[in-house]
UniProtKB/TrEMBL annotation:
Residues 30-132 form the Phytocyanin domain. PANTHER family: BLUE COPPER PROTEIN, OS01G0272700 PROTEIN. Residues 1-29 form the signal peptide. It comes from Musa acuminata subsp. malaccensis (Wild banana). This is (wild Malaysian banana) hypothetical protein.
Length: 182
C-alpha cells in the first residue's frame, strides 16, 4: 500500500524542490546603495572605508543592483584598463542623472569610475565581482545581507525582495496537490 505512494511521491518532491530553489534564486534581488548615506562622491579622506573595501564585504549576484546617488558627478562603466588608468574618454556607459540604478545582468567583473576630472584618482571608483548563481548554496542567501551594526548602515545594502519563503510554500503546496491527484 505504501510502496506506490512512495514511488510517486519522491520524484515529485525532488522536482518541486528543484523548481522552488530555481525560483528562490531568481526572485531574491538586493539593491546596494553605493557609499551608504554619502553616496557616490569624491572621497574626502575621513571615510571609514573606501568603495572597494565596502564591495569586498558584500556578495553580489546576477539580478542585484547598485544605486548611485550623486550631484555634479557621473558614473562611468568602463573596462579594466580604463579603470586602472582612470581613463574617462570612452566609457561603455555613462550616467549623469544623479540617481542611477545599475542592475547586474551577468556574472563577472564590473568597473565603475567617476567621470569628473580627478575624482577617480582620488578614489571614486569601484570594482564589483558578480557571482554566478551556482555559487549560492541553499541557506547561503542571508550572507548577501549585512549583519547588524552601524558599519552596515554605512554600507547601505537593502533587501529589495524576499519572496523566497512564499515561493517555497507555494511550490510545496503544489507538490501536495499533485501528489493527491496523480
Ligand atoms: C553643484 O553645482 C552647482 C552649480 O555649479 C552648485 O551650485 C552646487 O552647490 C553643486 N553641488 C554640490 C553638492 O557640489
Ligand atoms: C583612453 O582610452 C582611449 C579609448 O580607449 C584611448 O584612445 C586613449 O589612448 C586612452 N588614454 C590614455 C591616457 O591611456
Ligand atoms: C530616483 O529614481 C527613482 C526611480 O527611478 C525615483 O522614484 C526617485 O524619485 C528619484 N529620486 C530623485 C531624487 O530623483
Amino acid at each position: 500500500m505504501a510502496t506506490p505512494i512512495q514511488t510517486k511521491f519522491f520524484p515529485n518532491l525532488l522536482f518541486f524542490l528543484s523548481v522552488a530553489l530555481l525560483l528562490t534564486s531568481a526572485v531574491s534581488a538586493y539593491e546596494f546603495r553605493v557609499g551608504g548615506p554619502r553616496g557616490w562622491t569624491k572621497p574626502t579622506g575621513d571615510e571609514l572605508e573606501n568603495y572597494n573595501h565596502w564591495a569586498t564585504k558584500n556578495r553580489f549576484h546576477v539580478g542585484d543592483s547598485l544605486y548611485f546617488k550623486y550631484e555634479n558627478d557621473s558614473v562611468l562603466v568602463v573596462d579594466k584598463n580604463a579603470y586602472k588608468e582612470c581613463n574617462t574618454t570612452d566609457p561603455q556607459l555613462k550616467f549623469v542623472d544623479g540617481n542611477t540604478t545599475f542592475r547586474f545582468d551577468r556574472h563577472g567583473y564590473f568597473y565603475f569610475i567617476s567621470g569628473k576630472p580627478g575624482h577617480c584618482e582620488a578614489g571614486e571608483r569601484l570594482i564589483i565581482r558578480v557571482m554566478v548563481h551556482s555559487e549560492v548554496m541553499p541557506g547561503a542567501a542571508p550572507s548577501s545581507q549585512p549583519g547588524g551594526g552601524s558599519a552596515n548602515t554605512e554600507s547601505g545594502a537593502a533587501l529589495k525582495t524576499t519572496t523566497a519563503a512564499s515561493v517555497l510554500m507555494a511550490a510545496l503546496g503544489s507538490l501536495f496537490a499533485i501528489s493527491l491527484f496523480s
